[in-house]
Amino acid sequence: MTKNIWHQRNKKLSTIALSLVLWHSAGAVTLEEATALQRTLITLDTHLDTPANLLVPGFNILERHSYGHDFTQVDVPRMKDGALDGGFWAIYTPQGELSKTGYEQSRDTALLRALAIRTMVSANPDIFEFATQASDAQEIKKQAKHIVYMSMENSYPLGTDISLLETFYKFGLRMAGPVHFKNNQFGDSSTDPSGSQWDGLSPLGEELVAEANRLGIVLDGSHAHDETVKDMIRLSKTPIILSHTGCKAIYDHPRNIDDALLKQLAASGGVIQMNAYSEYLEALPVDPARQAAVKGLMALYKQGSDHDVLLEKRREIEHEHPAVKASFDVYMQHFLHALKIVGPKHVGIGADWDGGGGVNEMMDVVNLPMITQRLLKEGYSKDDLVDIWGANALRVLQQAQDYAASVKK
Ligand SMILES: [Zn+2]
Predict the structure, then answer these.
(1) What is the residue extent of each domain of the chain?
(2) In angstroms, what is the span from residue 175 Cα to ligand 1's centroid?
(3) Fewest CB atoms within 10 Å of the CB: 145, 275, 326, 406?
(4) pLDDT 10s digits, 301-341
(5) Quick one: 7-285+328-407 is in which CATH superfamily?
């Protein structure tokens, strides 16, 4: 496969879409036109938390759901509407105790989540296809199926046994981030209330980087402390990704990175994928009544209340104390800032769907073409969109895989 393989698109469709765009030289591209163009690209979101929904009662990935009804954001009909081919479907486990029991429980949860992702694909072979090679995306797109790469958010389930990463690799894992909300055995998180513990990666975290490199797994620095990200860039043999992150220059939040780190990431060949998690995009007003209501809901959840009861309760809360979300425009401020600082070869999309992502006007994947529309309006070309929507993420995966192949005897 040549590296240009990702740029070879369905030429006919592409020409039609491009002419549509060129007709509007003033940049006033309609959403329909932007959607038509987007359909010709490989479109990947690098952080889909949708696997968390796969085992939820009443959720069927093949059917159309709505955010207003069950708070989900991704399903096949909506992916089709929003011209999203797929992406990296995450195995997420929350950070728990650093103990043998904690590790074992999260390992089992992670294995079940990996199985749920594989089952989603194997049960629907005409709809989805599992991808393990960077070049698979192109082939799957050609067959008009949805692309499923597997990633891991929080490597906590690996415990202290680095060899478990290979087990997940064999399950199809191709991207992994060391930490989530709190510090763990692999290093420091950007949001641990107790602050930094390891000054970046722990010794075990350094081993994790080496093992990911050996296997051909892309390292993901989202949620990692800035020092951890710097360690990852320094130690990794191949460029890292930030699968869902924003810009500190727009909103100074620990989950975002500053321009210096952004430039360092790009200089090493890495990519930032723009996060649409409202609370990280701008300072939002706090509603104490909502906070109290959400706390009550969490208590019900912990008591193991029935799913329908929880859902009804949540609808009630959203009706009485609606969540305040950031605007699409603020999302694009982060996006355009990253593009201004490091250019379109180092920016992509990871909106944290089904994991807390979503901004006003774009609360699910249906309105994703608004991004394409806006980027065209800002003067970005179709080639830039090819990179932003998928080729950048696939490039770092290809580099990880090339490196792994080169060290295999
Ligand atoms: Zn996350």
Answers:
(1) 7-285+328-407, 286-323
(2) 13
(3) 406
(4) 999 889 889 999 999 999 999 999 999 999 999 999 999 99
(5) Metal-dependent hydrolases (3.20.20.140)
